[in-house]
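The following record pairs a protein chain with its ligand, 4-nitrophenyl phosphate.
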Amino acid sequence: MSYQLLFVCLGNICRSPAAENLMNDLIIKRGLSGKITCDSAGTASYHIGSPPDQRMVAAALQRGIIMKGQARQFSSSDFAQFDLILAMDRDNYQGILSLDRNQEYGHKVKLMADFCSRHKLREVPDPYFGGLDGFHQVLDLLQDACEGLLDYIQSSQQGLVPD
Ligand code: 4NP
């Protein structure tokens, strides 16, 4: 069984699919393919079935990342399946925990930006209603957070070593 990560934002078309695709790239680069798997979801239902936002697709492509995905909504069944659930901002964090009816899974839910080491922001800002700069800022933050998150997983999960 692989170690399973779920990235969660509001719409699942900008931030969380970017995190998923950046993390998949980093997993390959660190020789951990198949040992850690990634998915993403949104707390809202607005964009179910949609591909990633074109502005994020274009911004990611400038960094050599090909964005894949189809939006889905976070569901309470995700709590048991995933090992770690990474919320992009505090609203997402609260939205996720509001579905944990028996308060069993709080230990699995973390704020993604807490894994940043170079950036000081502790939330990944919603870029949807802003300009293109916001998409690049999100990618900068997520690159930093993905590296920190993968360091954390590799140091806390003993069996997780590169091929
Ligand atoms: P995301 O961005 O949560 O990073 O996918 C958003 C996408 C859509 C909306 C808000 C944020 N929206 O209001 O439709």
